[in-house]
Q: What sequence folds into this?
């Protein structure tokens, strides 16, 4: 019987629990034993592993966060730390590891694979910043959370005839700002992938104001800069009343959307299948609506393609 371990690492995202559930239940279905690792790579180094059964993942598919908890672990970045983790995996007799996390966690998984330990990555991050997959687990839920916030901010922005700048997460990736901006009808979207001109933005805001449109929503990706600084520039250049809202960690929580639950279920099960087929050093993704897998090294070296068509469309539609 094979023994599989699963951990969640890095920034948490809604749907991680559904992915853990899928790993545990499909592994048990295939006759394996499954171990959960608490707190990501830290738990691996500390030997904080426990056996999971069918009921240990009951009643979690709808829960945000991760029951395995997540952590950042500096020690795992060192060779010594990774050796400790490798020893723990051997001592527990684990044959393969599923790592649910973002690109940093994948780099950790890649290092383990290079040490000869089979590791499979499942993309759990709201940022949608992994080039090899169309979607990551948690992105869709985060979009819906942001959309809900946009509607609420729009109400007050309209009552007070203000410009609202909403800063969203995504690190160096503008997908949350772009997709939520399109869905929420934002007037302006500022992302790291596209250059922006503050004077051009101010000109558009003044023209809209003169046309009688007294409120506007500006979506700002955190990778560009701080919403308060942009607000000050806009106030100074236009004289128009503006407010900044930084949504922050609200975007990482909440019950996962149907899309994220289904995606997590498929990806978790695929990771187990790959380990059972004797594959190592792979990541799971979704491409053109098909669940795919790819070499981890190749996946991490791919360059992200920004959806510039959608970005252009957003600016045509938002007047
Ligand atoms: P995310 O997985 O969300 O991108 P981080 O970048 O913080 O989050 O990475 C999570 C953890 O993965 C880190 O705390 C560290 O333990 C491990 N990790 C990240 N990068 C590396 C690396 N280059 N080598 C080894 N481990 C890494």
A:
């Amino acid at each position: 019987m094979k023994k599989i371990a699963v951990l969640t690492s890095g920034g948490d995202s809604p749907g991680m629990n559904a992915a853990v559930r899928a790993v545990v239940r499909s592994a048990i279905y295939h006759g394996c034993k499954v171990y959960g690792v608490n707190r990501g790579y830290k738990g691996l180094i500390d030997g904080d592993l426990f056996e999971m059964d069918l009921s240990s993942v009951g009643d979690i598919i709808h829960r945000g966060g991760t029951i395995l908890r997540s952590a950042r672990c500096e020690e795992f970045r060192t060779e010594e730390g990774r050796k400790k983790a490798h020893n723990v995996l051997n001592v527990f007799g684990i044959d393969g590891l599923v790592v649910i996390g973002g690109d940093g966690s994948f780099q950790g998984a890649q290092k383990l694979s290079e040490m000869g330990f089979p590791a499979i990555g499942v993309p759990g991050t709201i940022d949608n910043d992994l080039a090899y997959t169309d979607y990551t687990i948690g992105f869709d839920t985060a979009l819906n959370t942001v959309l809900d916030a946009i509607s609420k901010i729009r109400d007050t922005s309209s009552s007070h005839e203000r410009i609202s700048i909403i800063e969203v997460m995504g690190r160096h990736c503008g997908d949350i700002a772009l997709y939520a901006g399109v869905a929420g009808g934002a007037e302006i979207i500022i992302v790291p992938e596209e250059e922006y001109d503050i004077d051009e933005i101010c000109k558009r805001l003044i023209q809209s104001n003169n046309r009688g449109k007294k409120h506007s929503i500006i979506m700002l990706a955190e990778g560009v800069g701080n919403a308060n600084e942009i607000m000050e520039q806009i106030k100074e250049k236009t004289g128009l009343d503006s407010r900044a809202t930084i949504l922050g960690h609200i975007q990482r929580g909440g019950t996962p959307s149907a899309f994220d639950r289904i995606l997590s279920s498929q990806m978790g099960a695929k990771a187990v299948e790959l380990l059972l087929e004797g594959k190592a050093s792979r990541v799971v993704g979704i491409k053109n609506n098909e669940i795919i897998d790819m070499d981890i090294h190749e996946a991490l070296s791919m360059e992200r393609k920004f959806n510039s068509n959608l970005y252009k469309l957003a600016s045509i539609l938002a007047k």
Summary: Residues 9-11, 41, 72-73, 76-77, 101-105, 107-108, 111, 125 surround adenosine-5'-diphosphate (CB under 6 Å). The chain has two domains: 3-138+256-301, 140-252. The mean pLDDT is 97.
